[in-house]
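Narrative summary of target 7.
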Amino acid sequence: MKMKLIVNPLAGGKKVDTYLPIIREILGKGNTLSLAITKEKNGAFQEAQKVGQEGYDLVVVCGGDGTFNEVINGVVYSHSSIPIGFVPCGTSNIYALSAGIPLDPIRACQVILKKYIKKIDLGKVGTGISARYFVSMAGIGYDASVIKSLKSNLVRTFGGIPAHLVAGLCELINYRGTELSIKLNGSSCRGFQVIICNGSFYGISSLIAPEADMADGYLDVILFKNGKRRDILRYVLGILRERHLNFKDVEYTKAKKIEIDAPDEVWIQVDGESMGTLPQKFEVYPQAIQVILPETKFA
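Modeled conformation, tokenized:
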């Protein structure tokens, strides 16, 4: 089997440096393995765009959620049907949690070698050549503002999770929520924060959308109706404790299409990466890509 291993050496601190030699040894045994190291932004996207033309049977991503997002976008834009495997070495590894992929890189490699392939949905933001795809989730409002304000030097100094917590506290001090106009499958509603999920997990490792299924043809939508600072703090703590769905001002539904607008500048993040402002359209892209998952996902 001919594999391409796309590696982000900056993901997860020094985790990639620690595990890369054994990852290469495991995946390379009996296979032809080519290595692509990507350090610059969109480097993984560019490498993924080429895999179909290069004649690979499989592309494997070694990094975090941001690296995986670049690869799925590269594969979709190249119109390739190549299966994608994932070795989680990032900060949160939300996709791995939702997909049931072991967080231990060695065990994740063993899953890849068994090559159980399944088609899953993606979320799509925007239209035409400016569209962006996400595998786990998109956030509109406070969380996207935190991602936008996050400085790379803060991540290098404190590490991924502490840096996000520091940025979140700093953003909360000055945060002024903007009410959003939302259409879910054509029905109108309003709120201050929306999280659109394809997978079940979010943030550090919180189960945010317990009914989410990456292959059901729907996106799971969590709507937070209030926008004062005390509400935002309550929502954040609720998500961390996985009790947010008990709040009376939080709604959970499923949709195929979502439209969101706002009177002021409101940022969007997809899979933990900043991507512009409202207005924007979101929709499910059913059966969009082929991924390698544990055998238990086929029961």
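Residues 12 and 108 are 16 Å apart (CA to CA).
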